[in-house]
Amino acid sequence: MNKGDGETSYAENSRVQSKIISIAKPVTEEAIIQLLSTNSAESMGIADLGCSSGPNTLSVISEIIDVIYSKCCHLGRPPPELRISLNDLYNNDFNGIFGSLPAFYKKMKEEKGPGFGACFISGVPGSFYGRLFPSKSLHFVYSSSSLHWLSQPTKRVGLILGVSVQFQKDFSLFLKSRSEEVVLGGRMVLLLMGRRSMDPTTEESCDHWELLALALMSMVSEGLIPEEKVDTFNVPYYAPCAEEVKLEIQKDGSFIVDRLQVFEIDGDGGGDTLSSGQLVAKTIRAVAESMLESHFGSDIMDDLFRRYAKMVDNHLSKTAITTYISLVVSIIRR
């Protein structure tokens, strides 16, 4: 992810992720309400895994707090002490998040009044493909637009099969780790990019990354980057279908699937100053530029994403408006 709040930062180019959070909001609210109906813990552990940075991070936490306070008011009981953990990789812009906490706490106190109780927000850096928290310390786990990122890239030989197997390994480890950290009856709501078809080679799975590969190859053809550089670059990304997600949950056996839904998210349709292709390019650049820079260097980034934007525009001129497929799964610790 691109740090900060500049033109190419994730904070300024995460509208698609915001749409995903918004469309899944009813599922998130339902999970929290059901949790509070069956659990009256005085101290509640909450974790946002893959929290990233920017406006989406604390807006999600704010919405979770709102639901908790509203439900507790309805039940006629004081809200629990909230232990909120924000997790992402070590290079995430945690300082940016922490810098916005004073204003966040002030806003919460103004909105909730004297009823705003103890709320402790902390950062927990590290990979969620492994243990992050003490045993049985979490009541609600949330993750948005993160689990489609794999723990490592796969070799190009048998690439589709390789990324599918890697996803199975990663998601299995994610579930195993959370099963030790989440209390019985605890909830998890997971939002990730996916696909409708069981066939991982369908266009809905590959469009954006295939077009990025074409943009890179156009630079190879002009001698701007060596072909072997492209051959050795793999994006650690996999968009599973609902059946794959459900199968891994069943194989793990620690969670019950409460809801598993597939949503179609409209992409940005362009505007007065930017085309649809330019908006898609800004979105992809915000999440993938750091990986590309480490492999190809920073000098080609502007040229690469200009080419990519044109290719996306050309692609969209021949197809329907760009959409993203998102999976939303709500599960219960059994």
Automatic annotation (TrEMBL):
User: Which organism was this protein described from?
Assistant: Carpinus fangiana
GO molecular-function term, one example from the UniProt record: methyltransferase activity
Q: Where is the signal peptide?
A: none
Protein's name according to its UniProt entry: Jasmonate O-methyltransferase
